[in-house]
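request received
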Amino acid sequence: MSGKVFVARHAMGTKVSGRALVARDGFSARYDLDRIAGVFSRPAHKLAGQSYVGRVLVLDTAKGGVASAWMLHEMRSRDKVPLALVFNSVNPILAQGAALGDITMLAGFDEDVTAVVPHGAEVEVDPAAKTLRVL
Amino acid sequence: MLAGKLGEVPKLALTHQIKVGEFFGAQDFVAVTQAHVMADTESLGEAGVRWLESLAATKDGSRTVRIPTITDPRGTDFTKARQLKQADWMVDLERRAVAALVKIGVSMTDTCINYQTVLAATRGEHVAFGDTGVVIYSNSVCGARSNFEGGPSALSAGLTGRTPRYGFHLDRNRQATLRVRVVWTPESLNDWGALGAVIGRIAGNYWAVPVVEGIERAPTSDELKHFGAAMASFGSVALFHIVGMTPEASRLSDVAGDRLPEHRVGRAEVKALQQSYAVDSKVDVVVFSAPQLSLYELRALAGLCDGRKFKIPLLAVTSPQVKPDSDRFGYTGRIEAAGGTVYSGMCFYQSYAREIAEANGWKTLATNSAKMVNILGGYGYVPILASMEECVDAAQTGRLR
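response:
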């Protein structure tokens, strides 16, 4: 798996590298997170209890809730923010929030990235090249 | 505008919109006639309020909105914050946000049912609406055109009078991608919400557009409000069609639904979703909110409250446009005579739901809102979905049947 590269259709932000938290589940800052503690808090979420701070989140899709657009900005102000967000499919809210919160984001792949990126892998996210690379 | 000739605020707004538009491959902008901004302080936080205050304090050039720009619910009812046991800092933060938004020219309508209370968008009208429930209703029932516009983007649209042309502003993204045959037509609002939730889960992402067949009667605005809000919440869906009822789908083929495989959804699937939340019978608090209640919902609730004395708190949340009529028609008085409380201009889950649960000792919450049961799990509640009648019974006895 090391060295494998996945190409996204949508990208923004700066190039970052870090450890990936991977799950075939959704993402909403309001529904899924304890933003003060910096952990996934919705009990049914596949990453429940895990810290998202400084991690590259590789998830299936962004979920409803316009609040996430402000919340990513607020999380950034307290450094309780993921390093990058990578989605199979993204909604505008997360893109708008990433734009305001200055968070690197990739979305839209030909394969299910949650199935091919190992949980805990070191990855590189390069928005200029629109690539996710497993290191 | 981008050159800064109109000032720093429009330039900042347009720069943000270009960043988002380029992410989605927008070719240009489209003029919008209204913007609806979600900006409660639980979401904004101190950082967001400071951001708004920095816009409001700008002296150089224009700092006010160019089109009618209204707001989603606030994080409190200022007249009842103490009753909710909200901390002073929460109310202070709300006051600062309101002051900043007013300086930017925003009209504080504080409602998530603006399509019932302020001004519904019309077929083909391009708008920039926040609140997923507002967007899905406006797109689907009204035939208007909006993406989910988070607070920063909706405010930017208000400031520039335009939005990037992508997503549901484009004809090609409004065709159906999922065909659902419903073999059971709901009656109660919680059933309509649960049906929306089931379809939302099947759809599963923002770009999915369900077309629904088999609904046997014209749903009311309140029924479609709960149906759409839940679909948006569970599935991030922004547009649905109902064949023969919503404006863009007179026939299945109008939205290319005839080319899609059929999913069947019936009473069993709806009941299974409701049962998945029925984990406790003891109830700490009953809440009617998300979306805010219409005048007719408050009328129905008042009728159920007559002659009762509640053992546990019952909260009913409506908009500042509806509340005066509810007062005038006696609905508020009848609900509050039984021990309930009618709140105005807020939304329960946007009002520091985690903190007020801790302050009031609330854990198990009964509601008829499928949207709210989906959200509140993340705030530490045990939410239960039941009918309005069952919820009112629970307020009287402390238990759900």
